[in-house]
Amino acid sequence: MSxxxxxxxEPAELDDADRRIVNRLQDGLPLVERPYAAVAAELDLxxxxxxxxxxxxxxxxxxxxxxxxxHAERLGGGLTLAALEVPEADYERVTAAVNAFPEVAHxxxxxxxxxxxxxxxxxxxxxxxxxxxxxxxxxxxxxxxxPKQEEFHVRLHLPV
Amino acid sequence: MSVSTCPSEPLAEDAGANGLDAIDRAIVxxxxxxxxxxxxxxxxxxxxxxxAGEEVRARLHRMQQSGVIRRIAAVPNHYRLxxxxxxxxxxxxxxxxxxxLGREVAAIPGVSHCYRRPRHLPEWPYNLFVMxxxxxxxxxxxxxxxxxERLGEACRxxxxxxSSRILKKTGLRLARRPGPPR
Lengths: 160, 182
Description:
Chain A is of the alpha+beta class. Chain A is 35% helix and 22% strand. In chain A, helix 2 (35-42) packs across helix 3. A four-stranded antiparallel sheet of chain B has the order 3-4-2-5, covered by helices on one side. In chain B, helix 1 packs across helix 2 and helix 2 (41-49) crosses helix 3.
């Protein structure tokens, strides 16, 4: 478990082949027998070069992950977005306390009175309420729970 | 991780409401950190679970058809790609119109996530959340202005909350379910 305070990384230098790979693979890998060979052919690269570059893009943190993107609720899990109003003087302590929960998948500082926003992912929907209660006990702050009521769109695609 | 599967033993068919059985869940656990970067990734996943590559591929295909898997894809780091302005825009939209307007806004280019969420009055009046990504705050503000126009009079107020620090990003680890009885 990392409680690393990662600040915003610098934009990466990408060449043309990297850009084609990043753009193409955000759309998805086909479920065919040799999927990387199929994508490499589309991009006019060899399979080996695609795999080599993909590994490097992951190592360099240009891509944070490559693989199946699972739908939390359809896997039977619980998922919610929650926020805290954290006093500035207490920000580091509360960050450590919140991040210590393995159910906290993402946590961002945002500039608003509600200045800490995190995503909770739990094994079951019922565990969301218990985890929120535990975070309130650990931080001494009220958690604003904002579960999605309707999903209109989910599709992150950042062209480069 | 609590799903324990013994590859040499037949796995019980215990498909739950979501239609996943123990083998599907073992595949989820084996791939949630990422897909192997080798010419035959299905075979590599299968090898670690005692399954044929073809079976892994067929099951991933089925999970993608049923929506358990959105897609098998690269997840970019926004900042490393130059998207340094990532705004969570939040809107106070008339409840009578939010379902129609949410769908319309979702179709605007640049929108990655669009959800209806509960208000917490009086502190938090916003019920529509729209993530916008740009190479500058000015770009995100232009996108937000387009949204504002689309929402029209049904929208009373809005804010753009930029992320100023990543405090944690481990990604979702969603498959930790109680395993079969040991």
